[in-house]
């Protein structure tokens, strides 16, 4: 189920941008049709079944599998889904790739697990080594919900709205020390087919799934092509669109004929060779007033 690039609409709305900049996340309802939810759920179920047969599941039968498309090729259609991918380039611009993705299956938690303070910002050492306050955004994520998390306690995405603009929150001296949830924390409720778009800096965590519904989701993290990729590159496929090949780091840098310059391809120095730039230019979606969308 590969997404056609010709269907991409014209970017984030003014209301969505205002909400995103204020809260650090937005919910986009009914992105996936019932058929799409069934398609992607079946694909993840196959991966889960293979890991179960191999005895490779985590506690309580959990699966947190990195490199979503390399691990589950049918998920490629989510990477540039026409309803929500425009949110990504509207914020980050055209010189982007997927640096980190994962699929998740979390069955019912049968026993209370030892406490661990899991609130965090994405980015790892970025949050130690960058000196500004707030630190730069650098990346965003799309979370595709395939299971019903319309009620709290189902493994919901938890956030502190507006916390993307602060570098720290109160936390315990040790992560195994009981500590109250951050002030203002909420569980984001979503239906199958909904998508949460969020800033990597927002303080977030996952709630435990104490319901009888198995939590299933796929997450895609986007950043600039000059930031190192954590994901594995997927296997070749003739079905990938040019923009998907860009997102999966499958562009041929040899299109830059000067060998001394070919390593600069990911820096965006050759926009004419970057498929997303070409698409946005062709459809008059580049915005000279917004630096990431300038040529």
Automatic annotation (TrEMBL):
The record, for InterPro entries, names:
Phytyl_CoA_dOase-like
> What GO MF annotations does this protein's record show?
2-oxoglutarate-dependent dioxygenase activity; iron ion binding
At the highest ranks, the source species' classification is: Bacteria, Bacillati, Actinomycetota, Actinomycetes, Micromonosporales
> Origin, by domain of life?
Bacteria
- What's the name of the protein? Phytanoyl-CoA dioxygenase
Q: Which SUPFAM superfamilies match?
A: Clavaminate synthase-like
Source organism per entry reads Virgisporangium aliadipatigenens
């Amino acid at each position: 189920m590969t997404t056609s690039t010709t269907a991409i609409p014209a970017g984030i709305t003014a209301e969505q941008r205002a909400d995103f900049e204020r809260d650090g996340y937005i919910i986009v309802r009914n992105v996936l049709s019932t058929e799409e939810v069934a398609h992607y759920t079946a694909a993840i179920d196959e991966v889960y079944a293979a890991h179960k047969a191999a005895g490779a599941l985590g506690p309580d039968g959990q699966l947190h599998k990195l490199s979503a498309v390399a691990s589950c090729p049918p998920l490629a259609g989510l990477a540039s889904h026409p309803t929500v991918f425009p949110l990504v380039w509207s914020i980050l611009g055209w010189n982007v790739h997927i640096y980190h993705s994962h699929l998740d299956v979390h069955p019912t938690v049968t026993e209370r697990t030892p406490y661990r303070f899991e609130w965090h910002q994405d980015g790892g050492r970025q949050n130690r080594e960058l000196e500004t306050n707030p630190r730069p955004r650098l990346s965003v994520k799309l979370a595709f919900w395939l299971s019903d998390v319309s009620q709290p306690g189902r493994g919901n995405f938890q956030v502190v709205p507006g916390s993307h603009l602060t570098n720290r929150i109160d936390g315990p001296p040790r992560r195994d020390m009981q500590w109250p949830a951050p002030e203002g924390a909420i569980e984001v409720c979503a239906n199958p087919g909904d998508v949460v778009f969020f800033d990597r800096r927002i303080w977030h965590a996952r709630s435990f799934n104490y319901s009888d519904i198995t939590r299933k989701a796929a997450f895609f993290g986007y950043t600039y092509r000059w930031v190192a990729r954590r994901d594995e590159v997927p296997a070749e496929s003739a079905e990938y669109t040019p923009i998907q090949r860009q997102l999966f780091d499958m562009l041929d840098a040899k299109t830059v004929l000067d060998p001394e310059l070919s390593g600069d391809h990911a820096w965006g120095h050759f926009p004419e060779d970057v498929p997303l730039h070409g698409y946005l230019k062709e459809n008059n979606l580049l915005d000279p007033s917004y630096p990431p969308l300038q040529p």
